[in-house]
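pasting for the record
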Amino acid sequence: RGVSWVVRMCTVVWKRILANRKKVNVFYATETGHSKKFAKQAADALATIYKVNLNQLDSQEIYLQMSDANMSLFITSTFGSGEAPKMGLEFGAALKKAITVGGSSNDESMKNLTYRVFGLGSSLYPNIAAFGKFVHSSLGKLGGEAIYDLGIADDQEDQQAPFNTWLGRVFLGSAKKFGVTVTDEIIERTA
């Protein structure tokens, strides 16, 4: 009887702890699957200290998810000579429209957005990671707050190393911003 009570209490406490975790979205747009792979890695690492949702950039609920989260990550490839991948076309058009209308957005999901962007591309094209660069600059113009500079990886080189550096900065920078204590044990689990 006593053990049952302890288990129930631990369960209640654990659920409260999980419910109070900061919410993070990881959005991705890809043609070949590379951005999705990196987005999954980011979601897995951040899930050690945050409540994480992983979604395609063309999610029907993207704006609701952005406004409901404490931070949103955007991991996107660039298709062809600088275009958005298919699943990023609608979001890219919405950003262009919001900027064109007046340089700011009435949409609170972008005005109060804390974000990070990682762009994948190829140095074989003149504007590497063009869509990632566009998303990063557009969110800033619309009032969002970038936690750290844009991360970029070139498919002509090792993409994992720059991604790992970027993700480490996201992890530690966001923990500092949100007042989350990060122990050596947590860092080891995310490595």
